[in-house]
Design goal:
The protein has 354 residues and is of the alpha+beta class. It contains eleven helices and seven strands. The protein is 61% helix and 17% strand. α7 packs antiparallel against α8 and α9 packs parallel to α11. The chain is elongated. Keywords: Cell membrane, Membrane, Transmembrane, Transmembrane helix.
């Protein structure tokens, strides 16, 4: 059985890698054509190529489920076309055993994709975003965050104009809304984090509001107690899909502590966590069709069927995920429902073919 596993596994693995390479190539070419209009003296072709190359690891992890589906259709379909699958069945090898041999390399690739999504693609994607901003003139080279950012911490609403790569905040405005009333507005030229719960504000102007008066004063320095961390500020400026699982979980917990909506970050977290299960569900559907209606189909028909199934699955995943953001459905179920439906359909078809 070891030789059989390797033979079927190698066929599927090579096909999945080929499909992933083609999908990445098409994505790279289409994105390049779309972004080429940005090229100028500062934002050169080399910079654009660097940005697109940095985003490839994230695209790879994203395309793995669909690549697994189409690759399995191609790999097993090639064996079915040469009657090798028929010979295996005639030799007494059950259908589920052939399917298991095909699933093994997919599980390995899926786990590799999960590691890429955690340790490689977030760093590359965030660097690509920074390079894109720097070279297009939207950020100064000494700053990691510009353009302003709003955050809620404890009872305060905070606006920060910019932050450098060391975590120093510039032009920070703190709105104290204790008991749902605006108590004070405090503006500081800079803020430096002293420890996990304190910041040192410098060059401060403040206005305090009372029932019968408004008091204004200035201070050179003041300690500000807050749960705000420079890491949270950075994470707030990044799109959820460019964050790692650890960063998504960390920032979602912070938003939850502040009583803010965590839906987008939870949705992306569960989407990445369940990608291996998505790949497995799609592969099981692919195996059931190879032993069914696509057994004697041409390679083009198999690829076309794989694209249709993949599009249907991805759209279902997107729709149920977005529906969970505007309903009482938890993001976990928004991601899990289409995956479980796909898995159940694949297992049912496999049982029917057996």
């Amino acid at each position: 059985m070891g030789k059989l596993d390797r033979y079927i596994g190698n066929s599927v693995l090579m096909a999945v890698c080929l499909v992933a390479f083609v999908l990445l190539g098409l994505d790279f070419a289409i994105t390049f054509i779309d972004e080429v209009k940005k090229i100028n003296e500062q934002y050169t072709t080399a910079i654009l190529m660097e940005v697109l190359a940095l985003r490839l690891p994230g695209k790879l992890a994203e395309y793995l489920p669909v690549s697994s589906l189409i690759g399995t259709l191609i790999g097993l379909g090639a064996l079915a076309s040469t009657s090798e699958i028929t010979v295996m069945r005639a030799a007494g090898i059950p259908l589920w055993r052939i399917g298991l041999s095909a699933c093994k390399p997919i599980l390995l690739l899926s786990l590799m994709g999960l590691l890429i999504a955690e340790f490689v693609s977030p760093i590359a994607e965030q660097k690509a975003n920074l390079v894109d901003k720097l070279q297009s003139g939207r950020a100064a080279s000494s700053f990691s965050i510009t353009g302003g950012s709003w955050l809620k911490t404890d009872t305060d609403y905070v606006y920060i104009d910019a932050a450098d790569q060391d975590g120093t905040l510039y032009k920070i405005t703190i709105y104290d809304r204790s008991d749902d009333q605006l108590k004070s507005i405090k503006t500081a030229k800079t803020a430096i984090q002293v420890n996990d719960s304190e910041w040192l504000l410098q060059d401060i102007k403040s206005s305090s509001f009372y029932e019968d008066r408004i008091e204004t004063n200035t201070q050179k320095e003041e300690r500000w107690t807050s749960t705000l961390k420079s890491d949270y500020l950075y994470l707030s400026t990044q799109e959820p899909d460019s964050l790692s699982l650890t960063q998504l979980n960390q920032y979602a917990q912070f938003l939850q502590q502040q009583g803010l909506n965590t839906g987008n970050y939870e949705l992306e977290f569960w989407n990445k966590v369940f990608r291996p299960l998505s790949s497995l569900a799609l592969v099981i559907v692919a195996i059931s069709t190879i032993f069914g209606p696509l057994r004697s189909s041409t390679m083009g028909a198999r690829i076309f069927s794989g694209v249709l199934i993949g599009l249907l699955f991805q759209n279902s995943l997107y729709i149920t995920g977005r529906m969970s953001l505007v309903s009482s459905l938890p993001p976990l179920l928004g991601i899990l429902i289409p995956i479980l439906v796909c898995l159940a359909a694949g297992l049912y078809l496999l049982k029917k073919r057996n």
